[in-house]
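In this supplementary section we document a worked example of the pipeline. Step one takes a protein sequence of length 436 as its only input; no multiple sequence alignment statistics are reported here. Step two produces a three-dimensional model, which step three serialises into structure tokens for compact storage. The input and output of this example are shown verbatim.
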Amino acid sequence: MKYFNSLYARTSLTIFIALFIFMAFSSIVVFQYIMRPIAQQAAADLAALMVLSSQTWVELSADARPRFEEELKGYHNLLITTKHKKLIPFEHNRPFSNFLKKALEKRLDKPIKLYHETTSEKMIWAKIPISDYVIQIGFPYNHIGANPPKVIFILLVAAAILIFLTSSFLVSRLIKPLEKLSQASLQMGHGKQVEPIEETGAQEFIQLTHSFNQMNQRVQQLLDNRNTLLAGISHDLRTPISRIHLALELISETKDKELIDGIRYDLGEINRLISQTLELAHSKEQALNKLEMININELISSEVEKYQQTFKQIEFTSLSECNALISRTALQRILQNLIENAIRYGHNLPIKITLNSDKKMIKLCIIDQGPGIPDSFKQQIFQPFFRLESSRNSKTGGSGLGLAIVSQLCETYNWTIQLDTNNNTGSQFCLIISKQ
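The serialised model returned by step three reads:
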């Protein structure tokens, strides 16, 4: 279905249908207003010649008839005789034979049938009653051998094939640069680095490709500058943080333990925020991590056991055994972020994790029993630094980067993250991984 929705298929099909309809219409017009009248006139002329020859033959003396038969055969390729040949009805429904029958019937005012010999179809015969005679007059089969409908059908088939091949070739040459741009745009949309596209083809395509290459270059420069800026800021912040940590270790904890613990907590929050910011910045660059075949059931069980050491109310249920070729690091990070969100906003109520898979996809769901997320915020929660709790207090909410990292990792690996929420029953985040 995707192929028929493509620009190439639609353009080719449009050109093919338009030209084929024109060819079919032209063939009908030619047959109806040129070939048919010519065939009818030819049949009328042959019928007149046959009737006139038969009448002349009857009026001639017995001695003159043989000479007349020879001249008729030599000049008009017609055979005339009164000898009864073994004839059978001529069943071929050719347009010319029908026209000839109608022309003979019109001249003789009697029903006429065409016949051919039992031993051969080379001659077509007609029985013409004149006076006391039944004249048998014949003509070669090639007089009615033409079959315009068949000729038109063959021409239409040949034209359809030629039109299809020609339109496909032309459209392919026109659409190919657009397909390259479409694929490159899709890769850019997924955050992947795109190589410059060759600037070839028509002048309009060259200009379009050149503009795209310039835009791609500027986007890459902006991303590089962003990463450089974040790396520099993180380095400059971590150096004084490390010195503060060292100074804290040298201070006697007996002097003001509560104050020191508070400083350590704030430093930990700053360090965590820096780490998550860098992870968000580099998650796409790290998308080429080596994929490996892993047992997803075991991975989830291992992560759940770690969290159960501090939060017992996590239950993992697997409906099927699941193995897949994916990034272990990406799946672990997504799972950790979703579990931490469920613990943070689940009001210490039980959390349920389910895993189900079939031949087409893997579905992993983390379900909490917290207050849920309003429908109006379903898309915003995946934006960096967005929090439902607006006070920005780290004790009442996270940094606002957890779900942004989840969303970015899903986009990088072509996975899908879905949110089903009800304001009264909590939230359900489902990770869907396609196996195809």
